[in-house]
Design a protein that fits this description.
Elements (H helix, E strand, L loop, with lengths): L1 E5 L5 H12 L4 H6 L5 E8 L4 E11 L6 E10 L8 H15 L5 E3 L6 H9 L16
Parallel strand pairs: 4-5
Antiparallel strand pairs: 1-2, 2-3, 3-4
Length: 139
């Protein structure tokens, strides 16, 4: 059984540790900033009280005249618990919060080469959106 709940300060060390293990980069300050009052940050907790995963996002009006939408900034699931519905439960919890704020769209950015996360978001019903990201190397 998985419990989806809002993040609490004591969760931050487990969140940072899971993210560092999966991405190779420790960024505890980033996760602390995700706890801002205008953001939604949920965790999935196992029946044993262990972190199973997390999701973070916020409602924001996008540049260039786009209407407000819910934005997913991050999602991580403990690899031992992938394909068990944890990510979908987190996504559904975040979407419910977005709907409660009155938005009708949810968006995110993903690396087109990251097939794992692309497959996850497509399984949630997400498709290519109306915007095209542009990029310039400043090195």
């Amino acid at each position: 059984m998985i419990l989806i709940r809002p993040v609490e300060a004591p969760d931050l060390s487990a969140i940072s540790a899971l993210d560092a293990r999966l991405t190779g980069t420790a960024k505890p300050d980033y996760w602390r900033e995700m706890m801002a009052p205008d953001r939604h940050f949920l965790i999935a907790e196992s029946a044993k009280g262990e972190l199973a995963g997390f999701i973070a996002g916020e409602v924001r009006a996008w540049e260039f005249g786009q209407p407000p939408a819910g934005w997913v900034f991050a999602i991580q699931i403990d690899p031992k618990l992938r394909l068990k519905g944890v990510g979908s439960q987190l996504f559904e919890g975040l979407v419910a919060r977005f709907k409660a704020e009155g938005v009708t769209r949810v968006r995110t950015l993903v690396d087109r080469k990251d097939h794992l996360i692309l497959s996850f978001f497509r399984a949630q019903g997400m498709v290519a959106g109306p915007s095209l990201q542009l990029d310039k190397d400043l090195a």
